[in-house]
Amino acid sequence: MKINTTFRYPVALTIAGSDSGGGAGIQADLKTFSALGVFGASAITSVTAQNTQGVRGIQAISPEIVEGQINAVFEDLTVDAVKIGMLHNREAARIVACSIDRFCPSKIILDPVMISTSGSKLIEDETIEVIVKELFHRVTLITPNIDEAVFLSGMPIRNEEEMEIAAQKLLALGCRSVLMKGGHLEGKEMADILFTRDEAPLRLTVPTVDTQNTHGTGCTLSSAIAAYMALGKKLPDAVRSAKDYITAALKTGADVKTGHGHGPLDH
Ligand code: PLP
């Protein structure tokens, strides 16, 4: 029997937190990679005791094991793209920065996760400074929602003009590109806008999907962008495709009952 040893799937690595309820974090990332035909590897930074109703507890993984997971993956697999999600403490953020310098992945999507939909803080305050200083300039794209962008830019964001001013502030902090998610702004039409240093802003609108099942939307979007980049798409196309993927997953999951709170997307 002839065994084909030359074929390999594109590989994406998620460095993020675990959600025991299966809707967000590592679990959402791996489902997304798999659904898009990308082999998913993971480095878990923290474990949450969580379900669709909320986060009950957070345990950070030891820095040695976070580093060990990242090293083990990079020293064996060819990683085509990286997604970075929940980084609970400073040590994890610093390890990720050092790992980027060591292994030089060229496509890195950072979701600056701070607070869950259910209102739980997923990050220690001092970690945010390390993420801004050590990670922003090392990654390809950051994907803040409005609340995160307000916090990171230090200004109110009430409309698209303010989204742009805030994005310029984040670019000035060292980011190469910012996908600002307008989903939390008032109104039926929600725009996500991709700001880069050289190109005109790319405005992406889709009608709001009327559903409670939004748990893990941010995780899924950033991992879909990473997956499409692992598959070879350039950033704007990867963002467009990821947005379509999210919209489809929100629509098909809109009336599905999983748990008693904010259910997950369907993918
Ligand atoms: N739990 C984990 C482990 C996460 O990484 C995230 C988001 O990135 C969340 C929960 C929050 O997800 P959501 O705000 O969609 O509920």
Automatic annotation (TrEMBL):
Pathway where it operates? Cofactor biosynthesis; thiamine diphosphate biosynthesis
**Under the GO molecular function aspect, what terms does this record hold?**
hydroxymethylpyrimidine kinase activity; phosphomethylpyrimidine kinase activity
SUPFAM superfamilies, alphabetically?
Ribokinase-like
Cite the entry's keywords alphabetically.
Kinase, Transferase
Record Gene3D superfamilies: 3.40.1190.20
Q: Where is the Pyridoxamine kinase/Phosphomethylpyrimidine kinase domain?
A: 19-265
Q: What Enzyme Commission number(s) appear in the record? A: 2.7.1.49
What is the enzyme's class at the highest EC level? transferase
Question: What name is this protein filed under?
Answer: hydroxymethylpyrimidine kinase
Query: From which source organism is this entry?
Result: Parabacteroides hominis
